[in-house]
Amino acid sequence: MRDLEYVRDLGLIDAGEPPRIANPIYAEVVPRELGYILQSSLDVQAAWYVDGDGRLDMTKLLTAFGTFFGEHSEHWLGRFSEYPEAGPQLILQAYLHRVVNGGGRIEREYGLGRGRMDLLVLWPREPGQPSDLWERFVVECKVLRDSDRKSLAGTVERGVEQTLGYMAKCGAEEGHLVVIDRRAGAKDRRGGEGGADGCGRRQDGRGVIVWTL
């Protein structure tokens, strides 16, 4: 509670409930600054995830992120030790920014205190196209921790509904739910789901692809 009071006094979040970043400028600047070192160190290029028609392959991009997270997350979560609740989401944002900044943009909607974060990835279908015609991809991220009393299945079920709702709100054709399971023994319970990259995928039949890390 004192943390909330402090950032409210600084003007970083507004006075309403639930808490929200005070304005679009802060919503853009704060996560960029927190993830800048990671973003600048990533050896990834937008061209690797763009098809022959110039469209962004979000499934390919999130597959690559799953591999990166499985191999390097512990190191980077250690670097974000001052922000343990937000660390996994900061890693996801930094990775997406490194790629999407090569031609598109990312808009954010935070669910502060609700364990969720919504990202809207926008990518032009062709050069010079006005942004209202760009492709739209929703990426929602949820993090499960030992302190949570939520099951993975229940988290996925609720997350799919929330992702669909956000897709309808912003007119997105494709949605991705990324569930990062930080609970003890999570990898053992998944039984190696998803193969070497540690990333599970399934299509729920309504336009949402679910990734479990």
Which strand order does the major sheet show? 1-2-3-4-6-5
Specify the helix fraction band.
40-55%
* Biggest sheet statistics: 6 strands, mixed
Can you count the beta strands?
6
Summarize model confidence as the mean pLDDT. Answer: 81
Terminus-to-terminus distance: 30 Å
What coarse outline follows from CA principal-axis ratios? globular
Stretches where pLDDT falls below 50 for ≥5 residues? 191-200
Q: Count the helices. How many?
A: 7
Number of domain units:
1
What are the secondary-structure elements, in order, as H or E?
HHHHHEEEHEHEE
Q: Report the radius of gyration as a whole number of Å.
A: 17 Å
Percentage beta strand: 15-25%
Task: Describe the SSE topology.
Blueprint (H helix, E strand, L loop, with lengths): L1 H9 L13 H11 L1 H6 L16 H22 L7 H14 L4 E7 L4 E8 L11 E10 L7 H19 L3 E8 L4 H5 L9 E4 L4 E5 L1
Parallel strand pairs: 3-4, 4-6
Antiparallel strand pairs: 1-2, 2-3, 5-6
Helix pairs in contact: 4-5
